[in-house]
Design a protein that fits this description.
The protein contains nine helices and eight strands. By secondary structure, it is of the alpha/beta class. It has an eight-stranded mixed sheet with strand order 3-2-1-4-5-6-7-8, sandwiched between helices. The chain is globular. It starts with a strand and ends with a helix. Bound molecules: NADP nicotinamide-adenine-dinucleotide phosphate.
């Protein structure tokens, strides 16, 4: 696996692109506009390993493809070029941005399952949605580093989760398998494993976008937060 395609190249996309290049991958970036709008980002990342393209081209170029756009636009993600591919879904549901999505409101599905429905022949894995983009950038550590952070992943295909685990390992993170996509709710917005898990104990972040320095949540901390989500849901 050598190329990571990006559908969406904003705060999370650009951060993951930087980590990916540092790990030795090439990246192909896209957004909803003319690829020329991404040339400043390509220049900042280094033109030897980054390029800008349309979403269709980025989807086709990626050995692994990251979808990282406002959830309301998930139906824009190109289907055909992603057939058979592993797709990482970082999207979160914010009704104030995305509008009401009744099947998420009534908890009959998860955001990861929505993208999987849209991409029936792809293998969607939910990852990165529960960490602020700045923390994602700053907490990456080499394999074996005692201060490495753990990120939960969820997906319905075991081999796809292994591929994503290897990618996360390469860019600086350990993973904890939270189960199938239906379990992705346990680290979505409002749950204990969401964003604040990567804030030091006692810190009071001003907002989700400005959270101060990060804290590398351990496997036990992530597991406990996921269990707490289940406990709250059962009571
Ligand atoms: N920010 C965080 O810390 C954070 C953390 C975890 C997860 N997330 C989630 O991850 C997703 C991305 O977040 P972000 O903060 O990176 O958002 P962002 O900074 O607003 O970037 C979104 C990117 O998607 C592109 N885009 C929008 N509509 C598109 C479409 N229809 N097709 C292709 N590209 C499109 C945007 O470019 P154009 O508008 O120019 O097309 C932009 O490059 C969201 O669902 C967010 O909730 C965010």
């Amino acid at each position: 696996m050598t190329t990571i395609g990006f559908i969406g190249s904003g705060l999370i996309g650009a951060t993951l692109a930087r980590l990916s290049i540092a790990a030795g991958y090439d990246v192909v970036l896209s957004n909803s506009r003319d690829p020329k709008t991404l040339l400043p980002l390509v220049a900042a990342l280094g033109t030897a390993h980054a390029s800008a393209a349309t979403p269709e081209e980025a989807a086709r170029a990626g050995d692994l493809v990251v979808v990282t756009i406002p959830l309301k636009s998930y139906r824009d993600v190109p289907v055909e070029p992603l057939r058979g591919k592993v797709v990482i879904d970082t999207n979160n549901y914010y009704p104030q941005r995305d509008g009401q999505i009744p099947r998420l409101d009534d908890e009959s599905t998860t955001s990861g399952q929505l993208l999987q429905e849209h991409l029936p022949e792809s293998k969607v894995v939910k990852a990165f949605n529960n960490i602020n983009f700045r923390h994602l950038g700053e907490l990456a550590r080499p394999t074996g580093d005692p201060h490495r952070a753990v990120l939960p992943i969820a997906g319905d295909d075991t081999a796809a989760k292994q591929t994503v685990t290897e990618y996360l390992d390469a860019i600086g993170y350990d993973t904890l398998d939270a189960g199938p996509l239906a379990e992705g709710w346990r680290y979505e917005n409002g749950q204990p494993a969401y964003a604040r898990l990567y804030v030091p104990a006692g810190a009071s972040p001003q907002s989700l976008l400005d959270m101060g320095p990060g804290h590398p949540a351990t496997r036990d901390e992530v597991a406990a937060a996921l269990s707490e989500a289940r406990r709250r849901s059962d009571t």
